[in-house]
Amino acid sequence: MKTRVLTGLVAFLILIPFVVFSDTWFFTAGVALCAVISLWEALHCVGLHKNFWLLIPYGLVAAGTPFAIRYLGTEPTLTMVAPALFILMLYTYAVCVFGRGKVNVADACGGFVTALYAIGGFSALVYLHDFHEGGRFLYLLAFIGAWVTDIFAYFSGRLFGKHKLIPEISPKKTVEGSIGGMLFSVLAFLGFTFVYNTWLVGLLFNGEAVKMQLTLSYPLMAAVGLIVSVVSQIGDLSMSALKRYYGIKDFGKIFPGHGGMLDRFDSVLAVAIMLAVALGMLI
């Protein structure tokens, strides 16, 4: 417990410079680095981290996508996403075919999907930050929703947990903990909405009409906070299911007490992807 708390504090302190310098290349490079590390962890999980025919092209996509979103723009990058995904999928199958049995198709598909999850999630953080002026604060909702859910689901489960949620995948998670995580996620989103509408939006826009147009709706954000918490828990449980299937405890050892990059950001990635879709449609 002590190790988890200390590691969490260190991770939070490391996150601060990325928040402060989120308008610079430093943020993009940090996100790209996290995506590459997560990609390696995903391939390591399925036993393909030493296959350079997969590692190198996947790594280039992981490192390049955040930069493409920021410096080429979201629309040109998104236009290239669908063709790129099909090409990468066919390429993955080709590696399996020409590998002559050395690359298991099921493992390759598992690695491909998990790699896309990591690359898409980290790239979504850049998209959330850049897609409109308020994004320089709104992208923080991915961290707030995921980590508030995680923290309060843990403590709610410890205090009130009696009914197991999905013991086959995560024996310690409870229904009561899940509900607690959802409740506090909604409260956190309402708190963020108050701060954003009261102070942050004023830092971004001068005209009152513009500020009023871009303020956030409390009912809408409460609903988003609830959905985010559900998505966060699904993301966490999905990665737990993958680890259980491959018989590993953690994806890595970067964060003592927490595991690897994917262990720490599994729910953040799911939330970032969901928010990129939701906020892009609603704001």
Question: What's the topology here?
Answer:
Layout: H1 2-20, H2 25-45, H3 52-71, H4 74-98, H5 105-130, H6 135-138, H7 140-160, E1 164-166, E2 170-174, H8 175-204, H9 208-213, H10 218-246, H11 261-282
Antiparallel strand pairs: 1-2
Helix pairs in contact: 2-3, 2-5, 3-4, 3-5, 4-5, 5-11, 7-8, 7-10, 7-11, 8-10, 10-11
Q: Average pLDDT across residues?
A: 87
**Fraction of residues in helices?**
over 70%
Number of extended strands: 2
Classification by helices and strands: mainly alpha
Question: How large a portion of the residues is in β-strands, by DSSP E?
Answer: under 5%
Alpha-carbon distance between the termini? Answer: 40 Å
Strands of the widest sheet, in order across it, are: 1-2
Helix/strand order, N-terminal first: HHHHHHHEEHHHH
Major sheet summary line: 2 strands, antiparallel
Count of alpha and pi helical runs: 11
Low-confidence stretches: none
The coarse silhouette is globular
Describe the structure.
This protein has 283 residues and is mostly helical. Helix content is 79%, strand content 3%. A two-stranded antiparallel sheet has the order 1-2. The longest helix has 30 residues, at 175-204. It is globular, with a radius of gyration of 19 Å. 41% of the residues are buried.
